[in-house]
Task: structure prediction
Amino acid sequence: MRDLGQRRGYSVSVNSFNLVLKIGLFILVVGFIGILVNSKLMIGSGSSSSVVLQEAPRGLVPVEVKFEGLAKRGVNLTTQSAVLRDVKYGGEAKAKATRSSGGGVYVLSVEATLPDPVNTNYQVWLVSADEILPIDYMRGSGTSWSLSLRDSDKYSGYSGIWITLERTKDDLPEEHVMEGTF
Result:
């Protein structure tokens, strides 16, 4: 038989207290996380904006807008296109360039279908009667290559355009691939 007198009576209540404390702490942590998530994600609220929409005041009178002066201040853009001819691949390569200028802005767009330049780069050049200007390297992969430029108008004096195959990144044109004139 057991001697019940040697047994402590509070051991069951300490275990129960620890269990209740753990459950309470768990509920408190879950509640805190829920509040934090709700406040960060704005769950249940329409918007975090502090703008309040109201009805406009009564008695407002419409204002007439005149457009005559606006048309006179517009900028006329000059747009030109060039179909570049293949000078390297025997007609396999194709490219088209479009440029627009006016109001101090110059926009150049070049789209090309060229053979994959394994370990080399295609570069676009603008050409005038006495100067050759490197623009930038084309971006793309496989046979699809393009270049886009938007800058102040310092390129309108260049009427020619080249695409070259470059082995070294410098300011000297290497192998001509495509040539054209605007």
